[in-house]
């Protein structure tokens, strides 16, 4: 193996040791943990090795004696492939998670202790508590509750303040107001030696709401970490040519404009650039959506993600935007993003309506009681009770609880959800738009033979193909097991010939090989012939549908969704795919701009569109659609636009996403109904003045538990297939991509 | 009711101890890898033979 330069990934820990983070493949069980940690600890110079089993991430620190290369080598000797990755310098997500957890801990502690005092007061109120003892307990409650609420309430107070500054209302405004008024009123009540104080209600409220916040945050963080792992597992390296001569393996992130990289035959191109030397064919399905390779020579632009064919290329790396295609895509992307209407989350829409109603109800009940002759103090108490009881505890839990459970279920089905409102948007779609190449079909074309053909000639054809630069031959050459034949002569525009085992052999056009067009090959297949003496074989090279595409498309149609194909490929290549899937609305030969126009036309008809695509040319349309998915091996720029990524080689996660989102929204609506029903019962009680702190505590915890349990019903749906907790990501090999088995 | 003079502080002290234990666990990174902790306990390699 070539020397690799890991310096891009190596940082320093607090003690000054070199430190690197790696994502480790095939971590199985407890044995893996100790094997890896002990194996590395035995390496001279390693001072620390700790594997996080949950995230499959390993942190290693070492002193001068060891090196990054030695660590990776030791891991591979232990049987674990490891991929270094550079974690973000400051992990804000993790920091926020810890902060929420600290707030949760404080709120939990305070709620428990105040409840201890409150229960004593409630019990004492119906028996023989002395007013002095009650006052003591209330003051103690205040002593605990006020600082705890000041600390644990920060997530809500800050968010409410931010919303008020924007002159809008979110859920956190009534929450903050409810908590602050409950606390303030309770202090006043305590000072007046009253029977009731609401310290426990305020803290319980904070505790339940923080639970919702934390779980919501944790689920999203997990999906994001998993996506980062998959990116690291694909771990692209490039061979950089040193000015001094020789090559060194560097991570693609470390490449700079102007670097020269060597791309051997069959390898992925690590960066955008211009060919400096060499000639080859390059297939770029992730970039252009075109199935067949194109010929490149010095001066031609190539894109990151393209697969080099049969010749070695030297590429001069350019910064992004150096060629017209990327420029176009970027320009369209900017336009699509600015034109995108912002989706308002259901919870925010409800909050916008709910908060004023709540505040008005509280105000009106106070005014009503005043008019009926109640004292100012009693009216204020009623208003506070209304605010406490309507504090959207169940409402604020109703949506996040379902989202957490649903994203967890989708995660097990191979779907990494990126944004919190994706489920809502997914549930509302009525049209699914697919890109063809790389989405409905596999990114790489595959070999097909007519039934009854002499398949024994195939290995010969693969070896011969190594000597040809024709794009079709380069598809074949990728699978060749042996090296090229010596003494091959090329007849330009026709094919190549050589002598094999004393018999003349040819590879090329059908006429060149003297072969007739066989029946039984798909009309879209590009044909190439091979002849060895008297034996002959016609090889078809064609795109293949993803294994489960037909069933998934049929299932999507059965759910009443409109299905559309928007492809950049030739009409001849699109038509048979559309026919095989039974999709009537298939449009071919579209430029990225045309795709956006098509999406805009659909949206103008009031349709809500899910776009599924993988190519660089799809990035603008993903951004323009209402919601978007892309396979995890899509172009980086495209994935950045997608709302969710799916793992695996099938389309099943798309179906799972639609089903899961619809199920989740059903639960959300049920939960909102429950929350509403609770309010309908509890608010009249509060207005009537019947809500004592005991009733408030029971009502609040009861409704919160109810919506949480309802959300948890989703965790184990009959239809969700159980899968391993850590889905196997699709991982394009670094050298020589093989078409999947069973396609030939 | 004189019993409250030491029972209430005791209850609060226990609660505060629990809170600090939780915050310490959090700071020590014990919530970073919950699945790993569940697996590590099965490993016998720390037992002296």
Automatic annotation (TrEMBL), chain A:
Gene3D superfamilies in UniProt: 3.30.70.100, Calcium-transporting ATPase, cytoplasmic domain N, Calcium-transporting ATPase, cytoplasmic transduction domain A, HAD superfamily/HAD-like
Example GO molecular function: ATP binding
Domain annotation HMA: ranges: 18-83
Bilayer topology term: Multi-pass membrane protein
Keywords: ATP-binding, Cell membrane, Ion transport, Magnesium, Membrane, Metal-binding, Nucleotide-binding, Phosphoprotein, Translocase, Transmembrane, Transmembrane helix, Transport
A biological process from GO: copper ion homeostasis
Keyword Acyltransferase among record annotations: no
One GO cellular component term noted in the UniProt record for this chain: plasma membrane
Annotated PROSITE patterns: ATPASE_E1_E2, HMA_2
Transmembrane intervals: 99-124, 136-161, 173-192, 198-215, 350-373, 379-402, 672-691
Biased composition (Basic and acidic residues): 725-744
Spans annotated as Disordered: 716-744
Compartment(s) of residence: Cell membrane
Keyword Translocase: yes
Pfam families per record: E1-E2_ATPase (PF00122), HMA (PF00403), Hydrolase (PF00702)
PANTHER family: ATP7, ISOFORM B, CATION-TRANSPORTING P-TYPE ATPASE-RELATED
Family membership noted in the UniProt record: Belongs to the cation transport ATPase (P-type) (TC 3.A.3) family. Type IB subfamily.
Name of the protein described by the UniProt record: Cu2+-exporting ATPase
Automatic annotation (TrEMBL), chain B:
Transmembrane segments: 6-26
Alphabetical UniProt keywords: Membrane, Transmembrane, Transmembrane helix
Source organism, top-level taxon: Bacteria
A Pfam family the protein falls into: FixS
UniProt cross-references to PANTHER family, sorted A to Z: FIXS PROTEIN
Protein name, as recorded: Cbb3-type cytochrome oxidase maturation protein
UniProt source species: Aquabacter spiritensis
Upper lineage: Bacteria, Pseudomonadati, Pseudomonadota, Alphaproteobacteria, Hyphomicrobiales
